[in-house]
Amino acid sequence: MRYSNYGVIVSAILALLALGLLFFKGFSLGIDFAGGSLVQVRYTQNAPIKEVRDLFEKEARFKGVQVSEFGSKEEILIKFPFVETAENEDLNAIVANILKPSGDFEIRKFDTVGPRVGSELKEKGILSLILALMAIMVYVSFRYEWRFALASVIALVHDVILVASSVIVFKIDMNLEVIAALLTLIGYSINDTIIIFDRIREEMLSQKTQNAAKAIDEAISSTLTRTLLTSLTVFFVVLILCVFGSKIIIGFSLPMLIGTIVGTYSSIFIAPKVALLLGFDMGKYYENEARKIKKAQEKEKMRRLYEGGQV
Fold first, then answer.
1. Are 83 and 160 in the same domain?
2. What is the mean pLDDT of the chain?
3. What span, in angstroms and rounded, lies between the C-alpha atoms of 170 and 159?
4. Positive or negative, the Cα torsion across 172, 173, 178, 179?
5. What are the subcellular locations of this protein (predicted)?
6. Cys-Cys link to 33, which of 8, 29, 102, 268 (CB 3.0-4.6 A)?
7. Which residues contact 62 (CB under 8 A, 6 or more apart)?
8. Are 59 and 20 in contact (CB under 8 A)?
9. Are 76 and 47 in contact (CB under 8 A)?
10. How far apart (Å, rounded) are the C-alpha atoms in residues 162 and 80?
């Protein structure tokens, strides 16, 4: 636990910086949440990005168009806000017509999300994160103690804030892929934390020590190898996905890559330390456990008396 104080301080500073980014700069909402269209176009030659951008700028209703290289010099990704069309108009055909002067091309993907659907997806995405955190808190409270539950949720919020801010830093659009990465991170991080908490409980129940900090140190030391090996395995898999995967999944792979590091760090340095800071006491823990055992014994005694017809 001697390094955990530094860990908490570093995390607090990083979390404050991350919150500053979230509140003052904010996310760049992708089409999943803001509504709009995404068009993937492949040319037979090098894609004329500037020419494509100029062609769309000439069209009054196509405002805020973003054109970027996608995977290779022949492919581009075109993003633009939601465009109102008449019933007899085909947006795909309109875009194809605009692109005609730019050369030989093929529209490989065309996705459109309306603003109402985008708003609903945003609300559901936020709700899913909140429900996940609440469910985890209830489970950990039931299995361990409320201080451990609160500590685990604080660590998870810390992870989500840092990873979410990295989305802003790396200029990734906030889409459903990012929400999926954050939910995956929550599950991955709490798994690491639960393993450490399990070991802490075993150390406490063995009653080898009355010192909570020492019990936590022993638990972290005994699970450290397993935690690091698991994290490295996940890290390298996600790293390969991030490096060699398509840019279309960068909203999932990069947050997961950062989240693997942050989640492992918080499980070791943040969650156990926060439980101590919340006032976890070994003496009170043993008293509670003794009461539970006594209550269970009394219930068992009453059950036997009832079965024997003495009650």
1. no
2. 80
3. 17
4. positive
5. Cell membrane
6. 29
7. 56, 80, 83, 98
8. no
9. yes
10. 28
Query: How far is CA 64 from each of CA 27, 40, 75, rounded to the nearest angstrom?
Result: 16, 17, 20
β-strand pairing of 72-80 with 105-113: unpaired
- The CATH code of the domain that includes 96 is 3.30.70.100
Residue 286: CB partners within 8 Å, gap ≥ 6?
A: 204, 207
Which pLDDT belongs to residue 8? 79
What pLDDT is attached to residue 302? 72
Q: What is the C-alpha separation between 250 and 38, in angstroms, rounded?
A: 15
Longest Cα–Cα distance in the chain: 95
Question: What CATH number did the domain enclosing 198 receive?
Answer: 1.20.1640.10
Could you report the per-residue pLDDT of 92-114, keeping only the tens digit for each? 788 888 888 888 888 888 877 76
In this structure, are strands 66-70 and 36-43 parallel, antiparallel, or unpaired?
unpaired
148 and 220 in a common domain: yes
pLDDT for 309 equals 60
Which whole-number Å values give the CA distances from 135 to 70, 201, 216, 243, in the listed order? 39, 21, 24, 34
- Check whether 180 has a pLDDT greater than 60: yes
In the beta sheet, which residues pair with residue 195?
none
pLDDT of residue 281: 65
Last residue in a domain, options 67, 84, 113: 113
| Domain assignment of residue 297, yes or no | no
For the chain, how many structural domains are there in total?
2
Task: Mark out the alpha helices in the chain (DSSP H runs).
Answer: 4-20, 31-34, 49-57, 91-99, 115-143, 146-169, 176-205, 212-244, 250-265, 271-277, 282-307
Does a structural domain hold residue 289?
Answer: no
* Residue 29 DSSP class: B
pLDDT given at position 33: 75
Please give the residue range of the domain that contains residue 237.
Answer: 1-27+118-280
Q: Is 76 in the same domain as 215?
A: no
Phi, psi of 37 (to 5 degrees): -130, 150
Q: What is the C-alpha separation between 267 and 195, in angstroms, rounded?
A: 9
